[in-house]
Specification:
Layout: E1 14-22, E2 34-35, H1 39-58, E3 62-66, H2 68-79, E4 83-84, H3 85-91, H4 99-108, H5 114-118, H6 122-131, H7 144-157, H8 161-166, H9 168-176, H10 182-197, H11 199-208, E5 212-216, H12 224-228, H13 250-268, H14 284-292, E6 298-301, H15 302-308, E7 323-325, E8 328-333, H16 335-344, H17 350-367, E9 372-378, H18 391-403, E10 407-409, H19 412-417, E11 422-423, H20 444-460, H21 464-470, H22 478-486, H23 489-493, H24 504-522, E12 541-542, E13 568-571, E14 587-592, E15 596-601, H25 604-611, E16 616-622, E17 626-632, E18 638-642, E19 645-654, E20 658-663, H26 664-667, E21 673-683, E22 686-691, E23 697-701, H27 704-712
Parallel strand pairs: 1-3, 1-9, 1-10, 2-4, 3-5, 6-8, 7-11, 12-23
Antiparallel strand pairs: 7-8, 13-14, 14-15, 15-20, 16-17, 16-21, 17-18, 18-19, 19-20, 21-22, 21-23
Helix pairs in contact: 1-10, 1-11, 1-18, 2-10, 2-13, 7-10, 13-14, 13-21, 17-18, 20-24, 22-24
């Protein structure tokens, strides 16, 4: 339905196009299948259905942009096939939690906005104070009731306004405030799962009713112009340092667009759709490709328009027109209005904030009757700063616009249908961030990531992309899908110095896991370069050093109390992991004499479970070289390799414990050599476990200096 004529009969109303962009990357570890971070589920609980409820309540006509990988995650949550490590911990009874899991909950279940969720709620705030600085030792202060209350409050804090007002279970628990029972927690989880599970169907319903238009982003949220040609990064940024690879794959861009549309149509229902390119990133080649693949329209930022117009945008009223490049209709977001909603109004009184929006829109309408103002922004993250999750603001905003005779809420498709697009002779390359691409390329970490992607693609992909494009009726192979996921923008977003998150190492690891998965799917060994951090972790695990040189008997048993008494120890569970699992090694003992390096693992049953009868357990030592020490569970053999070449063997035994001895000569160790240590469980060519889950534990081989040091003391 196209917008109607002027409500007042005097002038055509200004078409107000609000587009809410919904995006979360795929947080699933492609090797283990475990979902490492819960943000898709949590935003599904707090924001996705919440936004639609307010739209339905007010009858507002808006556009909702959904990223296909987000839709796939919501689909898995709805059918129960997703294994989310955070939700597993929220579900478990406190008396069934390991010490590592208790520490994880105490550390991470305050991951909410403190001003709007923690401080106003007495019990949640009390638990926050009990945690103190958040050191892992603070978990011992939490008894079972404290832990259960924390589990419940974490879930309650992520409920939106509609659930809090309409769902009796949520209302009652908020009123009760503390001393929750296990039964109450389980009922809350049922409500939460149901809310997340209905998200896709609610989108379908509102689109079928014509209330919303659903647009999409290319499949894995890639920066299309950079996939087409990395050198495009220098178009808006001359002299920008580029990766040392020549990456030009417009065929990947085409498949990202095609699969994005196909995924949305499969999940939501088939219909023509517009596209918000990831981060509003456009170029002339990308725009042509979008049109060729059937996109109805595309959108980007006002600065792209300013750089595309001859003479720039000297008259701001030129922003409020529909344009087209080639045959692709384009709209350009009003940055000021969009950013005021995203970053400013949360701290304002609701009436004043809405009044400010209306005044600005009326001013635009007076000068541009019948034209279009696009308001485009993130539809998830800003609401946690607003009172009541933004519901009062959005309800009043939608209602006020609809009641104003100068204004007309409409979808992007409706606005374009009611307009005659103005042709653009050129389309500047850039994104909605500084109208360039420097967020994703140019920093040494970002450039290294592009080089790893390019090298992996070169070694793994032959004609699979061409075959996928030639056979659109066939579903994509997992190999091709993994490549598309690795090309997503989110990994590059967190590299470099511009953005900071406590989860940077998780994003680093997920990016490399997608690349590793390509080698697994091809049945090839994973190259050592993918085991190295792109963004070095801020901290490394430090262990307790051995007190003296010693020589244990390698028989898989603890012979007597003194056998390993002098050993050093590394607490693998204290690695600051962003997910926890009961299937986790807790610690590793180590030491040495003049001839051998020794390791001991006290959880052999866990290794057998994760590795299977034919798998292997790996110790990875990273120093001047990266050594791989492989213990075979099939025959108890121990091999030492570097860069795929076997250097020799050691000895090992796995009975009550796993004991390992590695000849010093194979490692060419010298006194004072430092190493990073990580442990890996492999089964059927896949990695089933990794400890620490991020980073590495550091230790120093002192050799004979150890005894000299202790003697001098």
């Amino acid at each position: 339905m196209a917008p109607t004529a002027a409500k007042s009969g005097l002038a055509k109303p200004l078409k107000v196009c609000i587009l809410w962009h919904m995006h979360q990357p795929d947080y699933r570890d492609p090797i283990s299948g475990q979902t490492l971070l819960p943000w898709t589920w949590l935003h599904g609980l707090k924001d996705y259905g919440e936004m639609l409820e307010t739209i339905a309540e007010t009858g507002a006509r808006v556009t909702v942009n959904l990223v296909p990988t987000l839709l796939e995650q919501l689909e898995r949550y709805a059918d129960g096939s997703d294994r989310d490590s955070w939700l597993e911990l929220a579900t478990r009874q406190p008396n069934q939690l390991s010490e590592n899991e208790r520490q994880f909950i105490v550390q991470h279940f305050f991951s909410v906005n403190q001003e709007t969720q923690v401080l106003p709620n007495r019990r949640y705030h009390q638990l926050f104070r009990l945690r103190g600085t958040g050191s892992i030792t603070s978990a011992v202060e939490f008894d079972e009731q404290d832990l259960r209350d924390l589990q419940v409050w974490f879930l309650l804090a992520w409920t939106g306004s509609h659930l809090r007002r309409k769902q009796a279970v949520v209302k009652d628990l908020l009123q009760q405030g503390e001393n929750f029972s296990e039964e109450q927690k389980q009922r809350l989880l049922e409500v939460c799962h149901a809310e997340v599970g209905r998200t896709i169907e609610l989108h379908r319903q509102l689109e079928e009713q014509g209330l919303i238009e659903i647009s999409v982003t290319p499949y894995a949220h890639p920066i299309l112009p950079l996939l087409c040609d990395l050198h495009m990064a220098q178009a808006p940024s001359p002299g920008l340092p580029l990766p040392g690879v020549d990456f030009r794959h417009p065929e990947d861009s085409r498949l990202q667009v095609r699969e994005g549309l196909a995924t949305a149509n499969r999940i939501l229902g088939a219909r023509p759709r517009g596209m918000w390119p990831a981060e509003g990133s456009v170029s002339e080649d990308a725009a042509k490709l979008l049109k060729e693949e059937g996109a109805l329209w595309a959108a980007t930022d006002e600065d792209i328009l300013a750089r595309s117009l001859d003479g720039g945008m000297q008259d701001r009223n030129r922003l409020y027109r529909i344009y087209q490049y080639g045959d692709l209709p384009l709209i350009f977001r009003d940055r000021e209005l969009s950013d005021r909603i995203g970053f400013l109004y949360a701290g304002w009184d609701t009436g004043e904030a809405v009044g400010d929006v209306l005044n600005k829109l009326r001013k635009i309408a007076t000068q541009n009757p019948g034209e279009t103002v696009p308001i485009i922004l993130d539809g998830e993250n800003c609401w946690e700063r607003y009172p009541d999750n933004g519901y009062p603001f959005l309800r009043e905003l939608y209602t006020s616009i609809q009641q104003d005779p100068q204004l007309q809420l409409c979808t992007v498709k409706e606005a374009i249908a009611a307009s005659k697009p103005i042709p653009l002779k050129k389309l500047a390359a850039g994104s909605w961030i500084r109208s360039d691409f420097t967020t994703w390329i140019g920093h040494p970490e970002e450039n290294l990531a592009w080089e790893l992607l390019a090298k992996t693609r070169e070694e793994i992909i032959s004609d699979e992309i061409e075959q996928a494009l030639a056979n659109p009726e066939q579903p994509l192979s997992e190999l091709v899908r993994e490549l598309l996921r690795a090309e997503g923008s989110d990994w590059f977003w967190w590299f470099g110095d511009e953005h900071v998150t406590a989860q940077a190492d998780i994003f680093d690891r997920l990016f490399r896991l997608h690349l590793e998965s390509l080698y697994h799917l091809k049945g090839l060994p994973v190259p050592a370069r993918l085991h190295q951090w792109i963004k070095p972790p801020s901290t490394q695990l430090e262990g307790v050093e051995p007190s003296a040189c010693f020589t244990p008997q390698i028989d898989g048993r603890i012979g007597d109390y003194f056998e390993w008494l002098a050993a050093g120890k590394i607490d693998l569970a204290a690695g600051g992991a962003m997910y926890a699992s009961r299937e986790s090694l807790q610690e590793i003992h180590y030491g040495y004499n003049s001839d051998q390096l020794f390791f001991r693992i006290d959880e052999p049953e866990l290794l057998r479970k994760l590795c299977g009868d034919q798998g292997c357990f790996e110790l990875r030592l990273t120093g001047k070289q990266q050594f791989h020490i492989y213990f075979s569970l099939a025959d108890s053999s121990l091999q030492v390799a570097v860069e795929g070449k076997t250097l020799g063997s050691g000895s090992a035994a796995c009975e009550q414990v796993l004991e390992i001895a590695v000849p010093i000569k194979l490692l060419a160790l010298a006194n004072g050599d430092k190493f990073g240590l990580s442990c890996h469980a492999h089964q059927d060519g896949r990695e089933n476990g990794r400890w620490p889950t991020e980073g590495s534990a550091s230790f120093c081989y002192l050799g004979s200096d150890l005894d000299d040091e202790n003697w001098s003391v």
